[in-house]
Design brief:
2 copies of one chain form a homodimer. The first copy, chain A, is mainly alpha-helical. Chain A is built from 22 helices and 6 strands.
């Protein structure tokens, strides 16, 4: 089959959730469980996330801990709490032991205080030590996201000794067991690429095979650490404390989650949604969205107040009310394009506040062209439609002016927020719409007041 | 130092571009080159991307091919063409040989036809075969993104034979050389985890160590393939053709790029920017943004036409013009929240069109609460401010009604676009704003026309 024929019939993702949901809806929970048990843990996690909340709870309650442990890592973080709900401290302790330690730390942090203490008390001394580092740091730092299952050796180890030591590691470490060389105090010295272990003779000392290790400090923001890993194309990034002691590694699969989470967060924030919601809970949706709608309302009421100052102008030329939403809408749309491009480029590290002037210049140039084209079009339409040349000029000029307001505000607000170390995605769109609404109304209605005898 | 103290002073990313830009601005290109040469290729790529276009061109022209080859892979794709510009076919052939083959394929695809043919003719027969598979498929498929440097062995190989064969591989394969077992026709049978090679005795046959290999078809969309890799927490995902023959692997570092690119694309599309722009080119910005502003203008003019039908109502009660932008703005904002959450959840595979009814229900419930709260607030404000109870009722009801329009349209438009296999991010926001502008205006001004004697 030729490639371009194949193109048309690319296979869709298989829907694993619907057959299970169907069985539950038919009242046959046992059959649903049997279907779920036949899936790879990754697919089982996908099926669970695809179910409605109550079906998910029903199914989870029927699975035992040995079945759940391999699934937890594949569940998106916000679905994990459903696994832990309604389990006794003894069950939770067994689960914590079976989980990789970053997940165990998440589990413990999500529990009420006394349950968390009971679970920690049930762990081995070594496990408690590992978890300590993870729970000491906020979850959005490199240390809060890392896995503690790092494999360290002394520089004087031979290849044979290293392989022997590796055999004793737990299988979770498998994707991540490139050995790190540390000194007697556990400070990171260097790393050994895994392939070198395979090709070297057994008696070679690791110090002869080692190369420099890129690392980040424990308190580094998770997104910044993710970008370091991505930039250096690493599979794991060592995380060290202030003394240079190796605490663990941030692995590439965690980085995939971090970068997607950060993109989701920015995208939702730009639309005024403050948290990634489960889309099922009306209560959460209201809680995450109402505050921003409220703030935006203040902005809109300010615009309304500005418009009210021109009420007598509107009463004399009601036709202005027809074009007011066009002027405000186009300014807001153009400005939001600028804000979005600037916010995303800041997040991807492509631009920095020092580029503000240059960007404001090129965005203004863009706005002159787009605003000119749109202002001319609407101006001509207004002239022909309403038979008034002055109205056309007025509307066209206001549209062009508001496009320029949107471009400049669309650069200055996110850059300014970044400079004062605020998240530019959070409030830049509100400030922007505020600027285009208020200044757009002032331009259209102010000019109209001057030209009222011609309208 | 305690972790929470450290938190406050997390080190910023070091700015590698500014010192180089400074040297170029001072006219000392040689010093700038010397600075750049002192950096790791990953950091050098970051510095190049941080420079202004003409500074970048200046610097690239001074670097020779041996220095450029290791950098290309670290450059974001849209900066790569700058490396290839102004090079002779001979130079480009040398570069193609030095690059990993997915990058070489990109290079060749980006060249004018005769240059591309000259470069391909200069490659070895084996390299031409590898590149063929990459250039046969569109760049946004699994095969278009994969690397062809995959390491295959027969199932009857021993561990010792495999390690011997691995030694002959090129160092780029290093992150990606987990062996895949194939039959005599090159069809993928299974994979061997790398750790098993290290721990097994030299005489063990690979068939005894192998495990099932998750794979995708060559024509699979890159985003879907990226999600398969992410779901199974793989470091490389085998790509096979219709006959099951192994063509190459999609590696985790490419998947990081794919998922970020797709998130960027969706984010920009939601704001009406059709392509990821370089932010320096005014011409590109206009080209990527003007079409959407134009389409949106049609939508806004439709709303203006609707408003014009109520011109006599507005002439009798100019106060309506004050509240019109509030009603339209809040409906659009609320609806855009819904659209954004739905588009992102579709992209992340959390929901599908079959969830439409349930979602429309929960979004409407959310809109009843947020719209009720905002409608009541604005209604009371309008009553007190303008001293007219009926005006307050009218504005409050229109806001509530438009919030519900936004919620329902915000679910139906993206879901409908997904059903007819269109990208929901492209036009859902336009349709949405159209619905809330037109129906919001009809509700406010229609009700006002009925109640005109009370206003």
């Amino acid at each position: 089959m030729a490639p371009d024929e194949e193109q048309a019939e690319a296979p869709p993702v298989i829907d694993v959730a619907t057959p299970i949901a169907q069985q539950i809806a038919d009242g046959d929970v046992a059959a649903a469980i049997a279907l779920a048990r036949g899936l790879h843990p990754a697919e089982m996690a996908r099926a669970l996330m695809g179910l409605e909340g109550d079906h998910r709870t029903l199914l989870l309650a029927q699975l035992d801990l040995a079945e759940l442990a391999p699934i937890v890592g594949y569940l998106e973080p916000r679905y994990r709490s459903a696994v832990f709900e309604g389990r006794s401290p003894t069950e939770l302790t067994r689960l914590a032991v079976a989980l990789p330690d970053d997940l165990a730390a998440d589990l413990i942090q999500s529990l009420p205080r006394e349950d968390a203490e009971a679970v920690v008390a049930g762990l081995s001394r070594r496990a408690r030590g590992l978890l300590q580092a993870l729970t000491d740091y906020p979850p959005d730092t490199a240390a809060g996201r890392m896995t503690g299952q790092v494999f360290t050796v002394s520089a004087h180890y031979t290849v044979a000794q290293t392989i022997q030591a590796l055999r004793g590691q737990r299988p979770e470490a498998q994707q991540n067991f490139c050995p790190y060389l540390v000194d007697d105090d556990g400070r990171l010295l260097a790393m050994v690429e895994f392939s070198k272990l395979l090709f070297a003779t057994p008696g070679t000392r690791l110090s002869a095979l080692s190369s420099e290790a890129v690392s980040v400090r424990a308190e580094t923001d998770q997104e910044e650490a993710a970008r370091v890993l991505k930039r250096h194309k690493l599979l794991a990034l060592p995380v060290v404390n202030a003394d240079g002691r190796l605490l663990g590694t941030l692995t590439v699969d965690d980085v995939l989650d971090v970068l997607e989470d950060e993109a989701t967060e920015d995208m939702l924030l730009l639309a005024g949604v403050s948290e990634d919601e489960a889309l099922e809970s009306v209560f959460d949706s209201v809680r995450y969205r109402l505050p921003w709608l409220g703030v935006n309302l203040v902005a809109l009421m300010l615009a309304a107040w500005v418009i009210a100052q021109f009420e007598s102008t509107i009463a004399r030329a009601a036709v202005l009310a027809i074009f007011l939403p066009v002027v405000l809408g186009q300014g807001g749309n153009g400005g939001l394009q600028t804000v979005t491009v600037v916010v995303r480029s800041l997040a991807l590290g492509r631009i920095a506040p020092r580029n503000t002037l240059r960007l404001a210049g090129s965005e203004t140039a863009t706005a002159l062209i787009t605003g000119g084209a749109i202002g001319l079009t609407v101006g001509l339409l207004a002239w022909v439609w309403q038979g008034n040349l002055w109205l056309g000029v007025l509307v066209g000029v206001a549209i062009l002016g508001n496009q320029i307001v949107g471009a400049i505000a669309g650069v200055l607000f996110p850059m300014g927020l970044q400079l004062i170390r605020q998240d530019p995605a959070v409030s830049a769109p509100i400030w922007l719409t505020n600027a285009t609404d208020v200044l757009g109304a002032v331009m259209l209605l102010g000019l109209a007041t001057l030209l009222i005898s011609f309208l």
